[in-house]
Amino acid sequence: MAQVRAAAIADLLEHLVHRIQGISFARGLKPAQWVALRYLARANESARNVTRFAQFHATSKSAASQTLGVLVKKGLVKAQPDPDDPRIKTLSLTARGKRLIQDNPLGGLVDALEGLQPQQLEQFADVLEVLVKWTLETQKVPE
């Protein structure tokens, strides 16, 4: 019985991921571009570069660079050379990017999660942490 339930939950998670991906095609951006905007809005300055975003997003530096490059061309992100190492660019949201992130397509998901009881939210976070760790252990991040 537990295996059937676990399989059904896995199917629901897959369905949820596909729905979230669909919602994230918004305002002329692709899901990965929204991930990058949210990352840059929350990350501290030392983590706002292509390498750290690639690690966070579990993608190659090339793919991360391409995603962030599109956001720079759209005027949503600016890149400035790091004072200690000019080969590294520190990324940040432009004023336009900051305005756009206020219209995050996952805002409804945040609202739904905020509607949970604190204990439910904590348990859900614990479960998600286990699942993320599983992905990190079973999947190799591209180089």
What does this structure look like?
With 143 residues, the protein is mostly helical. The chain has helices at residues 2-23, 31-42, 50-57, 61-73, 95-101, 107-114, 118-138; strands at residues 77-81, 89-93. The protein has a two-stranded antiparallel sheet. A hairpin with a 7-residue loop joins β1 and β2. α2 (31-42) crosses α4 and α3 (50-57) packs across α4 (61-73). The chain is globular. The mean pLDDT is 93.
Quick synopsis:
With 143 residues, this protein is mostly helical. It contains 7 helices and 2 strands, in the order H-H-H-H-E-E-H-H-H.
Number of discrete helical segments: 7
Count of structural domains = 1
Detail the poorly predicted runs: none
Task: Report on the biggest sheet.
Answer: 2 strands, antiparallel
Task: Tell me the overall shape.
Answer: globular
Task: Write the CATH homologous superfamily.
Answer: Winged helix-like DNA-binding domain superfamily/Winged helix DNA-binding domain
Order of helices and strands: HHHHEEHHH
CATH topology: Arc Repressor Mutant, subunit A
* Radius of gyration from the alpha-carbon trace, in angstroms: 17 Å
Sheet-strand content, in percent, reads 5-15%
Question: How many strands appear in the DSSP assignment?
Answer: 2
Would you tell me the structural class of the helices and strands? mainly alpha
What's the CATH first level?
Answer: Mainly Alpha
Give the N-terminus to C-terminus distance in angstroms: 40 Å
CATH A-level architecture: Orthogonal Bundle
Mean of residue pLDDT values? 93
